[in-house]
Design a protein that fits this description.
By secondary structure, this protein is of the alpha+beta class. It contains three helices and seven strands, in the order H-E-H-E-E-H-E-E-E-E. The strands form two sheets. Strands 3-2-5-7-6 form a five-stranded mixed beta sheet, with helices on one face. A hairpin with a 5-residue loop joins strand 2 and strand 3. The protein is elongated, with a radius of gyration of 20 Å. The N terminus is likely disordered.
Amino acid sequence: MKSLVFCLALFVTGGCITASAQTTGEVAVVAAVAPVYPPIAAAAHAIGDVTVDVKIDAGGKVTSAHAVTGHPLLQAVSVSAARRWKFVSAKESNAERTARLTFTFLQAEANLPDDERTAVFLPPYKVQVAGPKVVIQRNTVH
C-alpha cells in the first residue's frame, strides 16, 4: 500500500522509478500452513518464536526456507510448514521475492478446550501455535 501511494506521488510529480527483481515489500499470502507442535518439544517445554526466511518464485511457490532463529526442537517443523505456504504470483516472470515468517509456539494451559488449541494466523506473516494437551499418567502400585 505504501509503495502504491509512493508510486502515485511520483506519477503526479512527474518522477520515475524502476524496481529491482527482488522485492522487499509485503507479498500477499494465498495459503498459509501452521506447523504441528512436536511432542518432543512439548515434553521439553520448548516455546517461543521461530523465524523462517523464505524465497518465493514468480508463481508464488516457496523455493527455499531456512530457520534464522528459534528453539532447535521447533525449527524443523517451522521450515516444513513454511515450504508449504503459497503467495500471490508476481507480475514480472523473473521476480524473486522474499518474506520472513514467524511461528510462535505457546505452552497451552492444561484445561484449555481443544477448539481453542487451533493455530491463529496473524497478518501478514505470523502464526501462533498452542501446545498439545499433555496428560500425566501416574502409576500406583497397590
